[in-house]
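Folds abound. Consider this:
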Amino acid sequence: MKRLYLTVTNDLLYDQRMDRICTSLAKEYSVTLVGRRLPGSLPLAARPYRQKRLHCFVQKGMGFYIEYNTRLFFYLLFRRLDGICAIDLDTILPCFLVSVLTRAKRFYDAHELFTEMKEVRTRPRVRRFWLAIERFAVPRFRHCYTVGEGLAAEFQKRYGQPFGVIRNLARLRTEMPDASPVPFLLYQGAVNEARGFEQLIPAMRSIDCRLVICGDGNFMTRLRELIFENGVGDKVELRGMLTPADLRTVTRQAFIGLNFTEPDGLNQYLCLPNKFFDYIQAGIPQITNAYPEYRSINDRFEVALLLDTLRPDSIAAAVRRLLTDTSLYERLQSNALRARLSLNWEQEEAALLTIYRNAFAS
C-alpha cells in the first residue's frame, strides 16, 4: 500500500476538511496527517489514519514558520513515503525538498490563495516573501487541486499549471434542523482578519437576536474590542473552538448561518469555505456575499440571501427579513435540505481519489 503524508500547520483536532480528505484517502493508501502541537492541545480523536503533531517552541510569526518547516523537513526526511501533499504555502518548501530527495510524488492542496489573504496582502515584506515561495514552488508541483473553479483559474493563469477542484463539501447529514427555542445567528470558522466582523458587530446594535461565534483566530482581540465599543456584549456569545461533533450540534440549532468576507483581495472574492456547505448540510438558511462561487451555487439551489455590499445596515436588513418573512425562510430551508443530497462529500471524494490514482499510475 502506498504511504502518503499530508502536512498542515494547525492542531489537527478541529480541521474538518483534512479529516474528510484523509479519511477518503485512507480507503486506498496508508495516510499520515502531520500538524503541530499547541500549548493547550487536547488529545486527538481516533481516526482511520495516523496523526502526528510536531512541537514548536515559537508559536507565531516568521520564527514559527522557520522552526516548524525545519522540524517538518527532518521529520519527513526520515519517513518511508511514496507521496507528500503540502497543504497551502506554509508547508510547501519542506514537502518539495523531501520529494526531490526521496523521489516521492508531490501534491499541492491550495485551500486558499495564500498570497492574497489580507494578513499577507497588506504587509508588503511578508507578501514578497510568500510570493517568492509561491513562484518558486508551485510550478514544480504537477498534481495540484484547490477548493473552487475561480481559484483554479487564477492559479492556472499565474503558473500555467492545471488545478483540479475539490470543494469544501461537508459529509452528508440526515438529521433535521432543530432550531433553538430562542433563535440565534451563527458564525463558525476562523476568527481572522477580513471576515467581516467590522461590519457584523455594528449591525448587531439593530438586530433583536443573539449572535453565537464558534472559532478562534488572529482577530479575537479586535473582535472583543468591537463588541465592547458597540455595546453588544449582551447579544454576542464567544464559544471558542469546538470539536467537530459539538459544532455540528450547535449549527443544527441555529436559525441563520452567517458567512462574510471583505471584498478586497482575490482570496476573499474567490473563496468557498467549509461553513457555506456546513450550513447547507444542517438545513439552515444563510446570509453571505454575492461573490461568484456563492452566486453560482445559489442560482442552482437558492439556499442563501446574497449581499451585494457588506455594510452593517445591509446585514441587519437581511437578518430582519429572514426573522420576519416565514415564507422566504421556509423556502430557503427546504432548498438547503434538498441541496445537501447533491452537495456533499460522499459525491466529491471520487474526484479526490482520481487525482491520487492518476498521479501514482503515471
Q: What stands out?
A: The radius of gyration is 20 Å. The chain has 15 helices and 13 strands. The chain has two domains: 3-169+344-361, 184-339. Residues 61-77 form the longest helix (17 residues).
